[in-house]
Design goal:
Length: about 180
């Protein structure tokens, strides 16, 4: 995978620019990757609802669940869909709003120094092999571009926001991802 260093964009991804981003405190301190899962409505895959959420266009009346989240301002750097399609919402050198209240290795505000990757999925279903393949390639590409990243600096949202978040969940196969990353 090819990352355009100046733009912070992945050439293999469709780019849908989220307004939910801002400048990082230190652009040279990209030192972690946080894996999430998302499905909208919960447990349903496909469609454009994730896009709508990250682009602040989610219609609250389209589904009963959406009323509670339609005004939430969130984003991720990349979404890996069930079929392996990659959609980028925030350039890597910008801060995406994916982690919320969080702490990793004693550092709070994980959005400041991490890249957020959403896997289209949920806590109670397995992820697709093509998603893991895309994720492994993406992380390996990020490691080549951002020197503070490593294979040991990948974690789940549940680990940086315990008690508040559960994703990517018990069905996320960390060993499989590590094997694919080499």
């Amino acid at each position: 995978m090819d990352i355009h260093c100046q733009l912070g964009l992945l050439s293999e991804a469709e780019y849908h620019c989220s307004p939910n981003q801002d400048e990082r405190v230190d652009k040279n301190d990209i030192s972690g990757v946080v894996i999430h899962n998302i499905s909208l409505p919960p447990g349903e895959f496909g469609g454009g609802w994730i896009d709508d959420l990250f682009l602040n266009q989610l219609e609250p009346t389209a589904h009963p669940y959406f009323d509670a989240i339609a005004d939430v301002k969130v984003s991720a750097h990349i979404l890996v869909r069930r079929d392996g399609q990659l959609i980028q919402y925030v350039p890597f050198h910008q801060r995406a709003w994916h982690a919320g209240v969080s702490c990793w290795d004693g550092r709070e505000c994980c959005n400041d120094f991490t890249i957020g990757i959403e896997m289209e999925g949920c806590d109670d279903q397995t992820f697709e092999p093509v998603q893991y393949q895309q994720l492994a390639e993406l992380i390996n590409s990020l490691i080549k571009v951002y020197p503070k990243l490593s294979k040991n600096r990948v974690t789940g949202h549940q680990d940086i926001a315990p008690g508040r978040k559960t994703d990517p969940g018990p069905y996320f196969d960390w060993d499989y991802l590590k094997n694919l990353m080499g």
